[in-house]
Amino acid sequence: SQQGEEDPQALSIQEGENATMNCSYKTSINNLQWYRQNSGRGLVHLILIRSNEREKHSGRLRVTLDTSKKSSSLLITASRAADTASYFCASPQGGSEKLVFGKGTKLTVNP
Amino acid sequence: KAGVTQTPRYLIKTRGQQVTLSCSPISGHRSVSWYQQTPGQGLQFLFEYFSETQRNKGNFPGRFSGRQFSNSRSEMNVSTLELGDSALYLCASSPGRGAGANVLTFGAGSRLTVL
């Protein structure tokens, strides 16, 4: 079963614009992670935010977490064509180390 | 250090056959997780092994099985293949305990096509 659900399912923007993706999850979590997947390849870990954190930055990435709303957002600033990929949120389910992924947001950055 | 290595990268099988996929984790990682990815269902968790023991299991039929060896390498097996088993199978390793316990490093995947 999906723990997180990303929104929107697809997003198309121009280079230089910002891209925002949202994720909602169902159960309590101790951390939430974001991953990127280039077409047909393995996923790459981008950033982890813990349940006691509200915001975290890494380069052009900014992640927020609202545990009261069970939601998170990923902001990519000044996007580049190379950012074109699918982005997934993931969180542990049921107190285990098992990571459950959402269905992802497909981001297209047009040059 | 070397990343997660999955073999084979591509394979084609026919219905009823069985398949074994292999995964070599990052050196020092004791946890290996397997996921199935399809366009319709997305990323579905199969199972996770930690120190040769299955620690977590997803909702897949018994045709899907796995194991982990003492060197942390893992294999998964699918028996009596069905058309719906066509998917990208992803292996991921993680420390499994302590800081960054469940931060996954993925392999490139094994793409299985069942005809």
Structural class of chain A: mainly beta
* Computed CA radius of gyration of chain B, to the nearest angstrom: 13 Å
Radius of gyration of chain A: 13 Å
Q: State the oligomer.
A: heterodimer
What portion of the residues of chain B fall into strands of 2 or more residues? Answer: over 45%
Q: How would you describe the shape of chain B?
A: globular
End-to-end Cα distance of chain B:
37 Å
Residues in helix, % of chain A = under 10%
Mean pLDDT of chain B: 94
Order of H and E elements of chain A: EEEEEEEEEEE
Helix/strand structural class of chain B: mainly beta
Write down the overall geometry of chain A.
globular
Highlighted features:
heterodimer, A: 111 residues, mainly beta, six-stranded mixed β-sheet, five-stranded antiparallel β-sheet, globular, B: 115 residues, four-stranded antiparallel β-sheet, 11 strands
Describe this entry's structure for a reader:
The complex is a heterodimer of chains A (111) and B (115). Chain A is mainly beta. Chain A is 0% helix and 58% strand. Chain A has no helices and eleven strands. In chain A, the strands form two sheets. In chain A, strands 2, 4, 5, 9, 10 and 11 form a six-stranded mixed beta sheet that branches. A five-stranded antiparallel beta sheet of chain A has the order 1-3-8-7-6, with no helix packed on it. In chain A, a hairpin with a 5-residue loop joins strand 4 and strand 5. Chain A is globular and about 40 Å long. Chain B is mainly β and 115 residues long. Helix content of chain B is 0%, strand content 52%. Chain B has no helices and eleven strands. In chain B, the strands form two sheets. In chain B, strands 2, 4, 5, 6, 9, 10 and 11 form a seven-stranded mixed beta sheet that branches. Chain B has a four-stranded antiparallel beta sheet with strand order 1-3-8-7, with no helix packed on it. In chain B, a hairpin with a 3-residue loop joins strand 4 and strand 5 (42-50). Chain B is globular and about 40 Å long. Chain B starts with a strand and ends with a strand. Classes of the chains: A mainly beta (111), B mainly beta (115). The A-B interface holds A 1-2, 31, 33, 35, 40-45, 48, 88, 90, 92, 96-104 and B 4, 31, 33, 35, 42-43, 45, 48, 50, 55-56, 58-59, 88, 90, 92, 94, 96, 100-109, 111.
